[in-house]
Amino acid sequence: MTDRSASLATANVVALAGALPVLASLALPFAARWGWAALADGATWWMERPLVLIVALAAGVLVHEALHALAWRASARLPPGSVRLGFNWKALTPYAHCAAPMPARAYRIGAAAPGVALGLLPAAAAWVTGSGPLLVFGLVFTLAAGGDALILWLLRGVPPGALVEDHPTRAGCLVRDAESPDADR
Questions:
Q1: How far apart are CA 8 and CA 66, in angstroms?
Q2: CA 62 – CA 106 distance, rounded (Å)
Q3: Of all residues in the chain, what percent carry a pLDDT higher than 70?
């Protein structure tokens, strides 16, 4: 087996390091179309509604992990109970963990699902509608998917059909049968 994982701390640091380019790539097109004031108004909207902010963040975190679980189950056709949701208190990180092996393609789908559904799609909708609050929501949840983006990077070069197992304690997976698992490391 080949380890394609990173510590939770490393995943969080990489996500923080990638924050500026992500923010720029999502905020600049919005500001170019709708203006910086619309973006500032979006941030202000959330800050003026702290209860809504707290509920949206808490619900978003839960939905983020549920999307991992649902995407893995659907794309790998896994049975009920094969994905467990929880919270790692040492790393202050929620998680979805799948105990069953699955094709790398399904694992990638599950890794990407929350960032697309909660981050990129709301940001794209904000570009179209001019909604600053929606853009800020999309920015926050795109950033929240930074560790997932690292996992997708770690899986580069792994064939779609290679069986992988979700790592039990780290961000990423173990590759069971890649044709040449170390070819691109």
A1: 19
A2: 21
A3: 95
The answer to whether residues 123 and 141 touch, using CB atoms and an 8 Å cutoff, is: no
Q: What is the 3-state secondary structure (H, E, C) of the chain?
A: CEEEEECHHHHHHHHHHCHHHHHHHHHHHHHHHHCHHHHHHHHHHHHCCHHHHHHHHHHHHHHHHHHHHHHHHHHHCCCCCCEEEEEECCCCEEEEEECCCEEHHHHHHHHHHHHHHHHHHHHHHHHHHCCHHHHHHHHHHHHCCHHHHHHHHHCCCCCCCCEEEECCCCEEEEECCCCCCCCCC
- Measuring CA to CA, which residue among 127, 111, 106, 128 is closest to residue 64? 111
Distance CA 168, CA 81 (A): 16
What pLDDT does residue 137 have? 98
Amino acid at 123: A
Residue written as tokens 């707290």?
54
Mean pLDDT of 109-114: 97
Closest CA to 131 of 38, 66, 59: 38
> What are the sequence ranges of the domains in the chain?
2-175
**Segment 60-71, tens digit of pLDDT:** 999 999 999 999
